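Saturday, quiet lab. Running sequence design on the C-alpha cells for the scaffold JK sent over.
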C-alpha cells in the first residue's frame, strides 16, 4: 500500500510538472509572437518614414535641377 501511494504521488508530481512546462511553453510562444509583431510594426513604420524622406529629398533634388536649368548661363 505504501509503495502504491508513493508511486501515485510521483506520477501526480510528474503530471503537474508536465502541465506546468506546457503552460510555460505556451506563454513563451505567445511572448515571442507578440515581440515579432512589435518588430514587424516598427519595421513597417521606419520603412514608411524612410520612403517619405527619400521622396522629399528626390523632390528637392528635382526642383534644384529645374532651377539650375532655368538660370541663365554665363
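Result came back. Writing it out in full:
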Amino acid at each position: 500500500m505504501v509503495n502504491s501511494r508513493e508511486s501515485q504521488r510521483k506520477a501526480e508530481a510528474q503530471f503537474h510538472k508536465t502541465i506546468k512546462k506546457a503552460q510555460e511553453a505556451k506563454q513563451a510562444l505567445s511572448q515571442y509572437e507578440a515581440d515579432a509583431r512589435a518588430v514587424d510594426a516598427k519595421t513597417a513604420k521606419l520603412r514608411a518614414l524612410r520612403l517619405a524622406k527619400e521622396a522629399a529629398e528626390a523632390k528637392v533634388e528635382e526642383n534644384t535641377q529645374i532651377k539650375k536649368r532655368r538660370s541663365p548661363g554665363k
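Notes for JK: The chain has a mean pLDDT of 92. Residues 1-74 form one domain. Ask whether to fix the surface positions before the next round.
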